[in-house]
Amino acid sequence: SDAAGESFTPACAEARKHRELRVTPWRAHRGYGHARDLTFVAPTNASIGPRETHCHQTQSYRVYKTDDKTNDALPGVALVVDTSQVQKDIPYGDYFRVESRWVCRPAPPRLSPDTSVKSTSVNERCEVWVGLRIPFQKTTMLRKVIEKSALEESRASVMGALALVERRLASDASLADSSDMASGLERTRVS
């Protein structure tokens, strides 16, 4: 939500050393559910080119129904967040974009140590899967180098964002005096 993003989005940007962050409000989007745009200046880790680049990222989200029946409390629900980002100032920046997809869904209930009793707490955990794609609009001999660099930077960025989410959940849980929320995020895979 825009209200949650007022503090969380800048915290993510600060952790990633982004500056000049500008974020549009979420708006209804016919094809994607809801969408917003972010612009910012980000540091680069490239051996050639500028030390930082201007970025434009479009984010969208939608809640989907699935065939998953592993959680009786919220059967068949998944939040899907898609991003598409271009880096304007780096060499070959107009050749490709970096796209990610985050899928967040309720995790199946845990079995107790005796494997017969399921956890009864509703919404106490979720699973997050993150995928990355780097579509190229033009060909270049440096494609493999670009893909490797983008994957490494994205992996670090995702792990940092997940750590921020975990800290936020723990902070919110301590404010609400509920320790169940603190363990609310379960990492499943970053690919």
Overview of this protein structure:
The protein has 191 residues and is α+β, with helices and mostly antiparallel strands. Helix content is 25%, strand content 35%. The protein has helices at 2-15, 143-176; strands spanning 19-23, 27-29, 33-43, 52-65, 77-87, 98-106, 126-133, 185-190. Strands 1, 2, 3, 4, 5, 6, 7 and 8 form an 8-stranded mixed beta sheet that branches. Strand 2 and strand 3 (33-43) form a beta hairpin. Helix 1 crosses helix 2. The relative contact order is 0.12. Mean pLDDT is 80; it is low at 177-191.
List keywords for this structure.
191 residues; alpha+beta; eight-stranded mixed sheet; 35% strand; disordered C terminus
Distance between the termini: 26 Å
How many strands?
8
What structural category characterises the helix and strand content?
Answer: alpha+beta
Mean pLDDT: 80
Major sheet size, sense and barrel closure: 8 strands, mixed
Q: How much is the radius of gyration in Å? A: 19 Å
Our count of helices gives 2
Query: Helix fraction?
Result: 25-40%
Please state the overall shape, judged from the principal axes of the Cα atoms: globular
SSE topology string: HEEEEEEEHE
Q: How large a portion of the residues is in β-strands, by DSSP E? A: 35-45%
Low-confidence parts, pLDDT < 50 over ≥5 residues?
177-191
